[in-house]
Amino acid sequence: IVALDWQSGRVLARRQLPALVGPLADDGTDLWVLQVTPAALLRLDPRTLLPKAPPLPLSRGRAAGLAVGGGYVWATASDAGEVLRIDPATRKITPVRVGGFPVGIAVVAGSVWFVDRDRAELGRLDPRTLQPVGKPIHVGGAPEWLAQAAHYLFVGDAVRGTVSRIDV
């Protein structure tokens, strides 16, 4: 991982990690890094990239999605078909079985949204109860990633080379 000064491009810090990492998320205080396999959550200082806590094991399998919102860190344990709610203060993990192969995840408009690649759907959870909200939205193809801007979600499909925009 490399921290850059966005104005000058100067390298501020560099850290080699022992395993493959995927998405990064920032909560304003910490840099959260998702180790893909075996799934683990890393908490780093965003300035130095040094660990602020030991890695938190999430799953024996793969994890693909990471988001921060609503006071929690969220991850997808793809092989287990779960969305994980992680309390950053206590490190308590609360899994919710959603089935399929959840990959991308985002917290938008008071809900937790996740992409299920197997079903080609966008699912939605209540962040407090972890219960599904509404019916899944069929996006088709092989959706992988999820991003948020304003009141929209963007679902990326690398196989079809498309991006779908959903008004939340």
In short:
The chain has 168 residues and is mostly beta strands. It has strands at 2-4, 11-14, 21-26, 31-35, 40-44, 56-57, 65-69, 72-77, 82-86, 93-97, 102-108, 111-116, 121-125, 137-138, 145-149, 152-157, 162-167.
Question: Could you walk me through the main structural features you see in this protein, from its secondary elements to its overall organization?
Answer:
It is a single chain. By secondary structure, this protein is mainly beta. 0% of the residues lie in helices and 49% in strands. The protein is globular, with a radius of gyration of 16 Å.
Task: Compile the SSE list and pairings.
Elements (H helix, E strand, L loop, with lengths): L1 E3 L6 E4 L6 E6 L4 E5 L4 E5 L11 E2 L7 E5 L2 E6 L4 E5 L6 E5 L4 E7 L2 E6 L4 E5 L11 E2 L6 E5 L2 E6 L4 E6 L1
Antiparallel strand pairs: 1-2, 3-4, 4-5, 5-6, 7-8, 8-9, 9-10, 11-12, 12-13, 13-14, 15-16, 16-17
Q: What's the gyration radius in Å? A: 16 Å
What does the average pLDDT come to?
94
Unreliable spans: none
Characterize the biggest β-sheet. 4 strands, antiparallel
What share of residues are in beta strands?
A: over 45%
Structural class: mainly beta
Strand order of the largest sheet: 3-4-5-6
> How would the global form be characterised?
globular
Q: Helix count, per DSSP?
A: 0
Order of helices and strands: EEEEEEEEEEEEEEEEE
Q: Report how far apart the termini are.
A: 32 Å
Task: Please give the number of β-strands.
Answer: 17
Query: Fraction of residues in helices?
Result: under 10%
